Amino acid sequence: MTPLRKAALAAIASASLVAAGCGSGFDDNGSKTQQSSGPASLQIMIASSGDAETKAAKDAAAGWATSSGNTATVTPAQDIVQQLGQALAGSTPPDVFYVDAARFADYASVGALDAYAKGDAFLPRLNESFTYQGKLYCVPKDASTLALEINTDLWTKAGLTDADYPTSWDQLTAVARKLKASGVTPLAIGDTRDRIGAFLVQAGGWWVSADGKQATADTPPNEQALTYLQSLLRDGLAKYPKALDAGWAGEAFGKGKAAMTIEGNWIKGALSSDFPTVKYVVKELPAGPKGKGTLSFTQCWGIAAKSKFKEQAAAFVTAMTTADQQMAFAKGFGVMPSRTDAQATYQQQYPDDAAFIAGAQYAQGPVNAPKMDSVLADLDAALQGLATGDPKAILQRFDKNAKTALGG
Asked: 2, 133, 159, 182: which has the highest count of C-beta atoms within 10 A?
């Protein structure tokens, strides 16, 4: 499914949710829903990454149900944005469900979520992704961050050593030139805000304000970031996946068409499965003018404001987010834990993921504001033409569109 098609479906689901939220009985604490104190029959909807995650979630839910005397049915959604939007707008939504950070504000803004969360045990930067108007609604279930993957064979072929791993923009440019001279594309990078946004953070900027209420794209730091990436693209030091005949940057990297890429910890499974012979190392993203910066991608365990079993649902979430259970999920399907007290254990067991773990301490989450689907889709379309576009014009267009959405 194309990004624009996904955005269209998301807009439809969000629109139905927002419409239903007006006068539907949604409220911040769900006090209008009669609660049941007896054994619960919890319905849990997940957006599964595959069979491994589905099995892990079902096994964990079955274990909780057996020990608690409740029942718990886990359903993997085919399209969770569409299905969850429709379910929340109806009268019987799932009790517990995955909420993507990029969608969270749409649900929170209409009172569809129960604000059950206490986030002291979780990484603060992840909690920010699930905070709306100063209130934490749901706890992050896991974490993913972007880092720099480097093909060590292509690196050595270009005459580079471990000492050359880039830690700044200037160093990134320097090694990219050497890689290009050796006959390989230096960097493959995705052509959307979900990769390019990391450069904005490194320059000290972002698309919107921290509270999600104001558009902040048209600023010197953001222009500096896009201008820098544009220079890499124009000089052939970086290329988008399409220019490398690849569906995503990880594929281009796996095929040896690029010596470096910027991807999340999900790339491990993809490379192991599809390109098992590729030798690579993972490093933190090079720092920009304002220091280190990366992006986080996370989901939370949401509880429906209309659930009749909020107490039992909260107990279920607590069980799913213990340090031991998060480590079991990490082993089962490759996610990183979101709990602060599980970071050291994870890094000890998965030392090659040190760069991803480090990034979780300072990562920037997605745009946390409602009604932004079409605005963000338009931004991605503009970024896809960055090589020949006008960085300032792209930022100004985003601000104009975002101000309309945020003020609506």
From this structure: 182
